[in-house]
Amino acid sequence: MDSVRDRARGALPRPCRVLVLLNPRSGKGKALQQFQRLVQPLLAEAEVSFKLMVTERPNHARELVRVEDLCLWDALVIMAGDGLIHEVVNGLMDRPDWETAIQKPLCSLPGGSGNGLAASLNHYAGYEQVTDEDLLTNCTQLLCRRLLAPMNLLSLHGASGIRLFSVLGLAWGLVADVDVESEKYRFLGEKRFTVGTVIRLVNLRTYRGQLAYLPVGSAISSKTPTAPVPLQGGPVDSHLVPLEEPVPSHWTVVPERDFVLVLALMHTHMGSTMFTAPMGQRAAGVMHLFYVHAGISRAMLLRLFLAMKDGKHMECDCPYLVYVPVVAFRLECKGGQGVFSVDGELLTTEAVQGQVQPDYLWMVSSGREPSPTQEPQQKPFHQKPL
């Protein structure tokens, strides 16, 4: 009964048992050593027992959580980059009991290069922006505090029929190029993105496409019914229509043009030193849509990139950079140009659309209240400190 009461008030029980999934090759390849040296002692002191599963190949974590007996664990802890938590969430949504499986609390411990989700959770907790072992220590302390908070989930559909779920977001253009092309510099840790960005700025590309989106205000006020896309398991995406149909009339359509990048981001940080959405405060059912259209100079792009560390890029007064808070979007790339990156993982380039599922999963976080503007998707969340 104690565990039930703890969950009702938004906390993990004491003592608690967690399953740790760890990618030893993420980032600089030091995740296992850091777990043993930094994380283990803190968990022992906080009465958090664990079982460690080390992943051996891509999608191994997804395979493991598909069949794991989740009743054995109070939470799933993922220590790696954002790609591993992407695997875990999609593995949970693959299960026949996905509706209950996705409610198992998750914890992100940074062990990769970008660590955007962990950096966002660190920000929500009120900590200063830090990196590497300082960020790992902060996120471990959040786990030891045991507080939970509801988080949004991005439901994505591709033209080929694929459906997947994202915890951090989708990128196309410059950001996705850097994600994919900087893989060869993984030994540099988060600095790989700086190196990759400089290289890509020297050889700047643009991509032809069409973007449409449903702004937050239109989603709240619109009374136009939309037919949900066909289900393949998972929640209904009531704002979306099939990709072969035009978007509903109350959506905003950006005329077809050349883009430098498009980014749909769920949280404040795209990486541990990339404070991309300083306006974000974890509002239920909202994601941050950024796009940069062609014509911007390399010097301005570099200026935006450097200012992003402190979240000052929106103050650069750049007419080529557009930001809109949205609940859904559709992106059609013309001629199959460019690549998509979802939570840092490569996705086939095709027409894609997505919708936020508000407050759809639990994350170990600061335990602050969700936005009162929308009701939680699954059930009410009442959060109080232990």
UniProtKB/TrEMBL annotation:
Entry membrane topology: Peripheral membrane protein
Aminoacyl-tRNA synthetase found in the keyword field: no
Annotated PROSITE patterns: DAGK (PS50146)
Chain residue ranges for the region called Disordered: 365-386
Domain DAGKc positions: 13-160
EC number(s) given by UniProt: 2.7.1.91
GO molecular function: acetyltransferase activity; ATP binding; calmodulin binding; DNA binding; lipid binding; magnesium ion binding; protein phosphatase 2A binding; sphingosine kinase activity
An example Gene Ontology CC term for this record: presynapse
Reactions listed under catalytic activity: 1-O-hexadecyl-2-amino-sn-glycerol + ATP = 1-O-hexadecyl-2-desoxy-2-amino-sn-glycero-3-phosphate + ADP + H(+); sphinganine + ATP = sphinganine 1-phosphate + ADP + H(+); a sphingoid base + ATP = a sphingoid 1-phosphate + ADP + H(+); L-seryl-[protein] + acetyl-CoA = O-acetyl-L-seryl-[protein] + CoA
Keywords: ATP-binding, Calmodulin-binding, Cell membrane, Cytoplasm, Endosome, Kinase, Lipid metabolism, Membrane, Nucleotide-binding, Nucleus, Phosphoprotein, Synapse, Transferase
Superkingdom of source: Eukaryota
GO biological process assignments: blood vessel development; brain development; calcium-mediated signaling; cell population proliferation; cellular response to hydrogen peroxide; cellular response to vascular endothelial growth factor stimulus; DNA biosynthetic process; inflammatory response
Compartments in which it is found: Cell membrane; Cytoplasm; Endosome membrane; Nucleus
Pfam families per UniProt: DAGK_cat (PF00781)
Cofactor requirements of the protein: Mg(2+)
Reported function: Has serine acetyltransferase activity on PTGS2/COX2 in an acetyl-CoA dependent manner. The acetyltransferase activity increases in presence of the kinase substrate, sphingosine. During neuroinflammation, through PTGS2 acetylation, promotes neuronal secretion of specialized preresolving mediators (SPMs), especially 15-R-lipoxin A4, which results in an increase of phagocytic microglia.
Assembly behavior: Interacts with ACY1. Binds to calmodulin. Interacts with SPHKAP. Interacts with CIB1, the interaction occurs in a calcium-dependent manner. Interacts with TRAF2. Interacts with EEF1A1; the interaction enhances SPHK1 kinase activity.
Identification of the protein by name: Sphingosine kinase 1
Organism expressing this protein natively: Cavia porcellus
Organism phylogeny: Eukaryota, Metazoa, Chordata, Craniata, Vertebrata
